[in-house]
Amino acid sequence: MTSSSASHLPSLSCFDAAIIDLDGTLVDTLGDFVAALGGMLADLQLPQVQAQAVSAMVGKGSEHLIRSVLAHVGASDEAALYERAWQRYQHHYLRVNGQHSQVYGGVIEGLDALRARGLRLACLTNKPRDFARPLLAAKKLDSYFEQVFGGDDFARKKPDPLPLLKTCEALGSASERTLMIGDSSNDARAARAAGCPVVLVSYGYNHGEPVHGVDADGFIDALSELAGRGEPRC
Ligand SMILES: O=C(O)COP(=O)(O)O
Ligand SMILES: [Mg+2]
């Protein structure tokens, strides 16, 4: 059984722009996260963390991830360790960025379809901007986006609506005419609060929870399912 509900998907002709999440939506970056965290934990002489545990902690930005991992491995003084952990994590992430990650199937076809429909595109991630930009370039996705914003570009991150509202402003697009495409409740909550319709992919990281339980306007198994959604039914 397919997990998509394509008949409920909004038509692309209803939109002037799309805002697309990065980790878990465009690129499967779990391997990069695991490698960077592994380097950080080794430097701190702490036990390693398994990929499955990491996948449930990704999506709320680096600070949340590092604090969650330190707590998960039983670090004794997590608050005191944080600054050093962040420095080691940053060092290792920039070293491995893109080496253990893959663009999901259907992404290129989906981005081509959005572009062919004339939608203006932004990538909005909770990942730091300095991690996001080189990753998009390494995966040859950068040319699709006229705006790229990271988790440190605004005062608050998703699920707060602020980053979406600011991205709509940068794109010159009204929020109700801007489709959010993401992989988690974080993206959906931010979109709802900003007034953007939202579609979620079924394959990403939703904080360890089944994504179909999230309040969204549609679910897709691949971004390529957006192609052909052109008929006017807003
Ligand atoms: O938390 C992260 O670093 C990744 O978050 P994203 O899913 O918003 O790209
Ligand atoms: Mg994501």
TrEMBL record:
Entry keyword set: Calvin cycle, Carbohydrate metabolism, Hydrolase, Magnesium, Metal-binding
GO BP terms in the entry: DNA repair; glycolate biosynthetic process; reductive pentose-phosphate cycle
Catalytic machinery residues: D21
UniProt pathway annotation: Organic acid metabolism; glycolate biosynthesis; glycolate from 2-phosphoglycolate: step 1/1
Cited Pfam families: HAD_2
An annotated Gene Ontology molecular function: phosphoglycolate phosphatase activity
Co-factor(s): Mg(2+)
Highest taxon, organism lineage: Bacteria
GO cellular component: cytosol
Positions that bind Mg(2+): D21, D23, D183
Catalyzed reaction equations: 2-phosphoglycolate + H2O = glycolate + phosphate
Enzyme Commission number, as recorded: 3.1.3.18
Protein family per UniProt: Belongs to the HAD-like hydrolase superfamily. CbbY/CbbZ/Gph/YieH family.
PANTHER family named in the record: PHOSPHOGLYCOLATE PHOSPHATASE
Purpose: Specifically catalyzes the dephosphorylation of 2-phosphoglycolate. Is involved in the dissimilation of the intracellular 2-phosphoglycolate formed during the DNA repair of 3'-phosphoglycolate ends, a major class of DNA lesions induced by oxidative stress.
Complex and partners: Homotrimer.
Protein name: Phosphoglycolate phosphatase
